[in-house]
Amino acid sequence: LQRVMSRTLLTLVGVVALSAVANGQCAAVDHPNCANWVKNGFCTNPGYSISYLQTYCPKSCANSGCGPAAAVTTTTAATAAFTENKNCPKWAESPTTMFCASTTITLEQKKTICKETCKAEANQEDGCAIYTQTADKVKKEANVATGAAKLNAATADGATKVVAVYVKDKCEVELFADDAAPAGTKLGLGTPTVNNYKVEPAQQTSQKYTCTCNP
């Protein structure tokens, strides 16, 4: 009997410990868009992990392990309480994901998941910008206004390369091999929903770019 009680006690302790770990990952409030996401099967989608449910819809998803389901509060306070995923800066700097510069992640997803880190892209800041990679870190350079050109001398030694560009709606980036090159490579026109383009290896050592925006 004593052995059975000991095993039972250990089991209960384990359950409590696991519960504490799970609840420790739960966000304080649901994301303001949870009501719509839940209607579309967010909570039961096998593509989303439990930790993902806990981060974005802990109260709306009964299977998140964060307690009983509750109505989503879409008040200003709830909106303000949710900022962005804590991994956003890491995702943005990673050469693998390049979250803010990604051509596969939609503008709406950037706004929803990483609205602070990807603020320039989400808010459609003026002009164009380039993303450079040095070692294993990606960095977004400052935006350049319409018609301006910038020399990216760091790419000359090969230590830094241009890996992506940002273009506002109706703007276009042209990359040049060097400051004296008469012609460059145009990478595509920005639209209301498409603002990022990858840079092919042949253009990654470009040292100059121009930004042209149409009214």
From TrEMBL:
PROSITE patterns on file: SHKT (PS51670)
Instruction: Name the keywords, alphabetized.
Output: Signal
ShKT domain location = 26-66
**Please, which domain of life does this record's source organism belong to?**
Eukaryota
Q: Which InterPro entries match?
A: ShKT_dom
User: One of this protein's Pfam families, by short name?
Assistant: ShK
Which residue positions does the secretion signal occupy? 1-24
PANTHER family of this UniProt entry? COEXPRESSED WITH POLYCYSTINS-RELATED, PROTEIN CBG07468
Protein known as: ShKT domain-containing protein
- Source organism per UniProt: Pristionchus fissidentatus
